[in-house]
Amino acid sequence: MVESSQLTTEDGLRADARRNRERILVAARAVFAEHGIDAPMATVARKAGVGVATLYRRFPTRDDLVRAAFAQQLRTCAQELTAALVDPDPWRGFQRLVETTCEQQRAEKGFPAAFTADFPMSMTDHQRPLEQAERDLATVVRRAQAAGALRADFQPSDIAVILLAHAGLVAALPEDGAASRRLVAYLLQSFRTGSSNRPLPPPSAFAPRDLPVGTQPKARRR
């Protein structure tokens, strides 16, 4: 009779190795959310209940661990970039790319830092190397501009600025989806050519006094 730990899964891993891998990824997401993606690998291993050697055997580098921990979110962003390239409405493709990427930033607390730290590598997958991701992002921008929908002075690098701004909001107000959606809507409307009467999403319910400690402006000295 074959021991359960000797059984292999569809990805070729033994069952026990598969369990270790999943524990590491769950622990990594929790540690990255609390301490950032520069947290010690030993902290991840300790939280996962495995040895550091086991962690490095599964994920030789920090980048390997970060990309595996947020594989679902990264895959969604890469798929949305592909969809934006062929959307018959170039503005809609651009808009959905920004909205979906920001949604992924909001969905997992550790993901914003991981994504922005590695942008535009975050838009890659096994079929799209970094250079291609950069070209594809530029193409999405050019298509929307050629359609007369995106302001002519918008640059592909501005997408990174959008994501950095949104990552800051998510870090300050991680549970406030209304604030996130409203910021993204404000930004997208500011990028459109001409004026837009499209209504904004409902406003956030938070008040300035609700800001986390350290983000409120200091009182001016007399």
From TrEMBL:
<dbReference type="GO" id="GO:0000976">
    <property type="term" value="F:transcription cis-regulatory region binding"/>
</dbReference>
<feature type="region of interest" description="Disordered">
    <location>
        <begin position="193"/>
        <end position="222"/>
    </location>
</feature>
<dbReference type="InterPro" id="IPR050109">
    <property type="entry name" value="HTH-type_TetR-like_transc_reg"/>
</dbReference>
<feature type="DNA-binding region" description="H-T-H motif">
    <location>
        <begin position="40"/>
        <end position="59"/>
    </location>
</feature>
<dbReference type="InterPro" id="IPR036271">
    <property type="entry name" value="Tet_transcr_reg_TetR-rel_C_sf"/>
</dbReference>
<keyword id="KW-0805">Transcription regulation</keyword>
<feature type="domain" description="HTH tetR-type">
    <location>
        <begin position="18"/>
        <end position="77"/>
    </location>
</feature>
<dbReference type="InterPro" id="IPR001647">
    <property type="entry name" value="HTH_TetR"/>
</dbReference>
<dbReference type="GO" id="GO:0003700">
    <property type="term" value="F:DNA-binding transcription factor activity"/>
</dbReference>
<keyword id="KW-0804">Transcription</keyword>
<dbReference type="Pfam" id="PF00440">
    <property type="entry name" value="TetR_N"/>
</dbReference>
<dbReference type="InterPro" id="IPR009057">
    <property type="entry name" value="Homeodomain-like_sf"/>
</dbReference>
<protein>
    <submittedName>
        <fullName>TetR family transcriptional regulator</fullName>
    </submittedName>
</protein>
<keyword id="KW-0238">DNA-binding</keyword>
